Amino acid sequence: MEKVKRLGKFRVYWKGDWDGKIFEKCVAVVGSRRMTQYGQRVVEKLVPALVHEGWTIVSGFMYGVDQAAHRTCLEVGGKTIAVLGWGINYPMSNDQCSMSNRILETGGLVISEWEEQQPAYWTFPARNKIVAAISQRIYVVEAAAKSGALITAEMGRELGKEIWAVPGPITSLVSVGTNKLIASCQAKMWLPDSDTKSNTKQTEISIALQNESLTVDDLVRKTGRSAEDVGSELTMMMLAGDIVEKDGKYYVSEN
Amino acid sequence: MKIRSVANVGLTSFGVDVEVDVAEQGFPGFNIVGLAGKAVEEARERVKTAIINSGLDFPPKKITVNLAPADLPKDGGAYDLPMAIGILAASQQVPKSDGIFYGELGLDGSLRSTKGVLLVGLFALRQAQGEPGAVFVPIESANEAAVVEGVEVYPVRNLKELVDHLNGVKPILPLDHLTINHLIDDSVVEFDLSEVAGQEQAKRALTIAAAGGHNLLMWGPPGTGKTMLARAMPGILPPLATAEALEVTRIYSVSGMLEAGESLLRRRPFRSPHHGISAAGMVGGGTNPMPGEVSLAHLGVLFLDEMAEFPRSVLEGLRQPMEDGIVGIVRAAAHVEYPASFTLLAAINPCPCGYLGHPRRPCKCTDKMVRKYRSRLSGPILDRIDLHVQVPAVEIEKLTLSHPERSEGSRLDLSAAPQDDSKKIREKVISARRMQEGRFKDDGLYTNSQMHNKQVKKYCKLDGETERILRLAVEKFDLSARAYFRLIKVARTIADLESAENIAVKHMAEALQYKQIA
């Protein structure tokens, strides 16, 4: 049985049902392993939009932004290609296994340049080369000043691919790289379509949450109400689907 | 010659007869029989030297001491005094006495403070028939027994004074009975909750924990006040009732942890063992099992800082006490049970380095490390913790901003933001506890946290809307059946804090704030 496929100038091992069509319209969504909540939210806005336009999402299968991109893509019913930073037969952890299985079940691909290679410092930049090569566009979500995602972007630029970066807060370390890409015109700035929906009920809390994510304590101080009142109202808003909670902070929900 | 003394096994006291025989015939010597431990064996030298150094005669004859019953293991220095008195009585230096003697001798004949004197007093009370029994104990520990009404406690400074007393030369006056209510005083609060900056939600969770006896887990990066919050907990718990104070003091008495002259523990215990603790240190152990931290925290607070750093075996040892409120310790020498009904307060960092989700500092942990760290807390332990709360990093600017001099025309007066001190909170807690007392008077429970599913169904009727909210939450947050009951219990306590008869929607909604953090 055939073990290796040609992919451009690369030879790759693969898992899944190989269908050349999957490579026709690919974008890479890459970023920091140390994704913040902001990065998570960006991925949740960006990936569904791309999937909706019919793109296949390519990423590096590492935790952080890569996995968030794969996961979000699967959640909205898109196809995704994972390019491993290690050999195709190298054992994966439980979480990675279940993620990989889901990718394959939905008609995606898991590919790698190697068969048995174990992960090492040099394997990840090598993997980035493939990510850059098979994608027509590259979106960078959260990258620190020195990030593997910047290597991917650089390689993509050399190959003449379209590079996009999502701006982040200037105070965040993991947005330094992306902001720099934009500032130095090496990447186009990605912004979401601005269709801010009008909220039906405007409470003190929902107004406070519109611009920033806040903890219960922040809201207590902002509104001057007691922790029990604020807490119970937040629960009700959460159950109604107006807001979501992540790691102790509350956000206005996206949908 | 027979002298009465007491052996404590765990918290149970047994009468011990110290029989002394001074034989006219036979080679001079001093032997102790009756399953005596090492410390009792060594009493020979202490007793002999103490008698001689007190200016009394140590008979140069064949002396045999028997500690009866023979099958009960005896350890410690408490038999020094009865043996010495037995020898002196058998050699006609003092008249025979019916009292109970208990205490360790020094070589100069003075008495040293001895563990378990409170239990001796309680034992004497049970044995007293009609008239109050006399108890002779070291002066430093005598106050412990003085809280027992109906027992004459004689504080003994040294052997010589005791001999003078028994011979009627110079009597020792028995201690006045100490009334417990007078002693209980907890006006002093180590930390006041108002000293902790911000953390309104955590304070609220602490209040609920105190009111309903719920266990509480605090998540948060280092330096956010988790330890301070925990230390403030005793200050918002209701004062010890008389019976409770006695119960706690008994445990401290057998552990020898009461200070000289101390009679009764006045405040709820707060124990915070370090995570290097062994399993035996946590639940209790030793050849003659001594109480561990769970028992020393009885009716008080057991605080585990950095809970995930504790060895798994130690944490698993908490399961039985958390479930039953008692802990059984089985050793070759004895099988004892100590009470261990405590409120667990635990603090945990969100990840090994501590800064996951911190607004400014980056976290250095990989995904795998975080998952491994969290998996150290086993499901069964987490299942027994009713309240989970985040204690986020406080941003100083935010705290100072919320002062009244805020410039923009805010219509809210932030100085009026809730800033209750421990005293106020405690009043609320006490009134909530009173509601629970009334509710559970026929069930043998004290707090909402102790309810089993049966009682939850009986006392926590939910109206249609509240039930709907709860069901919605169970579905949305994927909560287990056990979490369902836990939430109802917490909601019940929140309602109690408002003196509300029924659980309303807002109570349930607030309870959902403290659900388990994944």
Concise description?
The complex is a heterodimer of chains A (255) and B (518). Chain A has 255 residues and is α/β, with parallel strands linked by helices.
Biggest beta-sheet profile of chain B: 5 strands, parallel
Domain module tally of chain B? 2
Annotation, overall tally of beta strands of chain B = 18
CATH topology of the largest domain in chain A, which one?
Rossmann fold
Helix content of chain B: 25-40%
Structural class of chain B: alpha/beta
Number of domains of chain A: 2
> What is the H/E order of chain A?
EEEHEHEHEHEHEHEHEHHEE
**Average pLDDT reading of chain B:** 87
Strand content of chain A: 15-25%
Largest interface: A-B, 31 and 40 residues
At CATH level 2, the architecture of the largest domain in chain A is 3-Layer(aba) Sandwich
For the record, what CATH class of the largest domain in chain A applies? Alpha Beta
CATH-scheme architecture of the largest domain in chain B: 3-Layer(aba) Sandwich
Mean pLDDT of chain A: 88
What does this structure look like?
The complex is a heterodimer of chains A (255) and B (518). Chain A has 255 residues and is of the alpha/beta class. Chain A is 39% helix and 19% strand. Chain A has 9 helices and 12 strands. A 9-stranded mixed sheet of chain A has the order 1-2-6-5-4-3-7-8-9, sandwiched between helices. The longest helix of chain A is centred in the first third of the chain and has 16 residues, at 37-52. The radius of gyration of chain A is 20 Å and the shape is elongated. The model of chain A has no long low-confidence stretch (mean pLDDT 88). Chain B has helices at 38-41, 43-53, 80-90, 117-127, 142-146, 159-166, 180-183, 200-212, 226-236, 242-255, 279-283, 293-296, 312-316, 319-324, 367-374, 379-383, 396-401, 422-439, 453-459, 464-477, 481-497, 505-511, and strands at residues 2-9, 12-23, 29-33, 62-68, 100-101, 104-105, 111-112, 133-138, 151-156, 216-219, 270-271, 284-285, 290-291, 301-304, 326-330, 335-339, 343-348, 387-390. The longest helix of chain B is centred in the last third of the chain and has 18 residues, at 422-439. Chain B is of the alpha/beta class. The chains are: A alpha/beta (255), B alpha/beta (518). The interface between A and B is large, with 31 and 40 residues.
